[in-house]
Amino acid sequence: MVKCNKCSKEAVVKLHYNKTDLCGNCFCDQFENRVKNANKEFKLIELNQKIAVGISGGKDSAAMLYILHKIVEKVHGTTLQPILIDEGILGYRNEAIKKAQALCEKLGLELKVFSYRDGFKLTMDEIMDLKKANPKAGFERSCTYCGVFRKTLLNKAALEMKADTLAIGHNLDDIAQTFLMNMFHNEPERLKRFDVINDEVEGFVPRIKPLIYNPEKEVALYCELKRLPYFRGECPYSNESFRGEIKNFLNNLEQKFPGVKFNLLRAYLSMRGELQKAVEFDKMFPNNGKKKGNNGKNGNKQELENSQKIAEMIVNAGSFSIAKQKDADLQTTGKPTSTITKCKNCGQNSSTQLCKACSFVIEIGRKKMETEGQNRAIGGKQKKSIKKFD
Ligand code: SF4
Ligand code: ZN
Fold it and tell me: Disulfide-capable partner of 26 in 22, 113, 238, 274 (CB 3.0 to 4.6 Å)?
């Protein structure tokens, strides 16, 4: 019998990265202590806060909600509000919602569900059907759309319920993957904005990530040992993602060189101070001291005119009915006062005239019309050729 290194009971898990064997109880204590340590180190939870907790029905958010529930019991005036985003993926998210509901009931919390259908008048299944029907239309990968829509809707929901923070169940693996993806995509700007607490963007509810010190494999074990209800299935569109490739790559590396995921997190945390200074610098000098040339005053005006035309075209066509909460300042002057402005279509904060979610909705709408046009043309040709034989 392999003994637990902490209490000498029978071990249930071997952690290769720090060469320890642990029994179920000691493992769960260590798992929870890591969340508590992240909370203390980054001051994630404070007194009298309303914390929106983004849950999916999966293991990460189940473990996060369960532990946060334990923590906030001892934090005066702080409450949790679980929220779930339904992307509209049949056989996947609808099943996961049942598990999320079961967990919320167990904890005595009320779950609020927000859907892409209500928020954007579309579902991921519809987008993927369109992509299948018209593979040459240049659709993005599923997760590119889905990630943007989810982030937008979560923020909108958290703002609506006046939450102080939004807790996200990103574990150590997710953080290590995002860090590497930003490197591989050569996206230093994203790397600057990516933080354990993304509190630098005004109008966005600060996001906290209490599971940054918890490896994904351990999250699953914790849920099993605690018998938490969670959905084990995988999204049918996940094989399209670049993240999936990075995930496999990192898992192979971790197997050969235990500890690389923690090392990546440490590398990020040691750079974090410098990255935050860079963000502060950008806030003080939005143009980074550079002359803007065509992207300057005229560029902004042109961009504004273009986005107005597009927004009007879409609204006139009646294809989409995203609520327009126009920002009066921007309407009259057309000049954003900082790098953050309001989306011309939905009113959410954005660094461009149309936020990424609205741009995607418009792009998908255009591709949908193209596809329907092509189908009509094919239908017409078929009718003509049938007539020949009449
Ligand atoms: Fe959305 Fe991609 Fe996640 Fe599926 S795997 S739910 S498409 S982000
Ligand atoms: Zn928008």
Answer: 22
**Ligand 1 centre from 117 Cα, in Å?**
15
* Contact of 26 with 7, CB cutoff 8 Å: yes
CA of 370 to the centre of ligand 1 (A): 25
- Alpha carbon nearest to ligand 1 atom 2, residue: 143
pLDDT digits (tens, 9 = 90+) for 184-211: 887 777 777 777 666 556 778 999 999 9
Neighbours of 46 (CB within 10 A): 14
Give the neighbor-by-neighbor strand order of the sheet with 112-115. 112-115, 79-86, 50-55, 165-167, 207-208
Q: Which runs of consecutive H residues, i.e. helices, occur in 185-241?
A: 188-193, 216-226
Does residue 90 contact residue 125 with C-beta atoms inside 8 Å?
A: yes
146-167 pLDDT tens trace: 999 999 999 999 999 999 999 9
**Least distant ligand from the CA of 326:** 2
Q: Is the CB of 142 under 6 A from ligand 1?
A: yes
Q: Which amino acid appears at position 120 of this protein? A: F
Can you give the length of the chain in residues? 390
All structural domains of the chain, each given as residue ranges with its CATH number in brackets, are 43-284 (3.40.50.620), 308-388 (no CATH)
Closest approach atom of ligand 1 to CA 235: 4
CB 170 within 8 A of CB 212: yes
Q: What is the CA radius of gyration of the chain?
A: 24
pTM score, two decimals? 0.82
How far does residue 142's CA lie from ligand 1's centre (Å)?
Answer: 7
**Residues with Cβ < 8 Å from 163, sequence gap 6 or more?**
50, 51, 52, 81, 205
Helix (H) or strand (E) segment spanning residue 42: helix 24-42
CA 113 vs CA 143, 273, 282: distances in Å = 20, 36, 36
Nearest CA, atom 6, ligand 1 = 235
Determine the distance separating the centroid of ligand 2 and the alpha carbon of 237, expressed in angstroms: 24
d(CA 55, CA 163): 15
